[in-house]
Amino acid sequence: MIDLRVACLERRKAHLATLVDVFIAADGAVVENAVQAAASLPSLGACADSSDLVAKVPPDDPAVAERVEVVGRELGRVDILERTGQYEEGLGLAKRLRTEAASLGYPPLEAQAALSEGRLLMASARAVEAEAALRQALKLGIAHDLHATAAEAAIMRIFVLGNELARPQEGLASVPFAEALVERARGAGLLGPLLHNNAGAMHDLLGDVDAARASYEAAIAGLRGLAEPDPLEAIVQHNLGQMFLDRGRLEPARDQFLRARDRFVAIVGDGHPLVAHPLIGLGDVDLERGRHVEAMPSYLRALALLEGAHGPEHRYLIYPLVGLGHAHARAGRGEEAAKFYARAVQIAERADIRDKFFAAALAGLADVSASAGATEQAQQLYERAWTVYEELGAEDEEAARAALRAGELALQRGEREAASRWFERVLAKPGQAGRQLARAPRLSSPGCWRAAAGRGAHGSADWHRGPPQGSTRPNRCAHKRASWRTSPAPAVERGGV
């Protein structure tokens, strides 16, 4: 047992040496993430866990044992690259090491390699691949009594299932299973608070606000006993803010976003990409309050942080881009709005993303085109937005509005049959817009349809000028909640913010 503990301590020492090497070769972006990386170094406490040490007895073959040690040290480098925001380099190394780990036939190393790759895939918003890697880490962890590894993989997988793959019921159903694994791992590190956070995210996605708030508060309570502050506290505050924002409670939402931003800055520095998420939330609050110009700096800073960490084509950039499009459009800056909407559409198309943000960008670009007199282009964009909303099963006002505007423009262009089909789609919608139009007589002129639309859900709202305040913000799923992880050591990571 003493030999196992000495070997464990040597691995911790190697992890620290790797971090030092990364810092020596660091650029500005890496240095900005230095605090988080140093704070998340593996704990020495894990080297006192006899059950965990026994589960990781080295292979009998000296040559294999040596390769296991080398690959293990390299996996430590993967973790450092991840925590310092070097996702692309880290993912390339993780894939290579996972292949080598599988060839060695040593389950603890295979499980750790799968978990490391799963973390980076999740951070890179590659949900299908992340779920597969985490599922493999979970399977190996359970089969070989690697309790902390299994628990962490299970908790992260909850987030991927519910938030990234739109299967929140399946994610929530996995919570009791993850709770049992956390218990087997003796609540190592941040596993308990992390589980509460991700369970809260599932409850929120399913509309159970009371359960979500209780889970988030349980996560915060669990974090208060830590000797050092942890970024997980900030992400829970961000999630609470998003929950309030989704339900129109702007003041408590703003308060939570400010707390999350300040906490992130204090712990990981103001240049870390995690700071972008509460900044987007603050921009959303300003937008909902009609403070269009005031929202722009928050979105711009978030865009810069995300682009610096993930590159110019990553899906996370869509969120601040759509926010900037809305802000400029509502401030009467159509040309500027079109640039942001168009870039969001371009990123979504290249990544084959079809979510509410993509639809909102299409509809926003259509609004700008219609205002500029490009009616045919605007009609096509509204039709595309409607198609995306339909694919998502959306029954909300944004979908009805896209159909209504497509019909209005078709009628304006003399395409009466096409216009009639679009208006019938609006009437078929169960939302308030459809109900209001259903109460109106069968109308034939664009003016009459506009008048009927103006008596919709927002009273005197003029749908020609774009959606009223508060009606176009899609439910922010892809970045609203971040999944954090903790290994046998108290290390944290964002997944999909």
Automatic annotation (TrEMBL):
Keywords: Repeat, TPR repeat. Residues 449-497 are annotated as: Disordered. Transmembrane segments: none annotated. This is Tetratricopeptide repeat protein. It comes from Nannocystis pusilla.
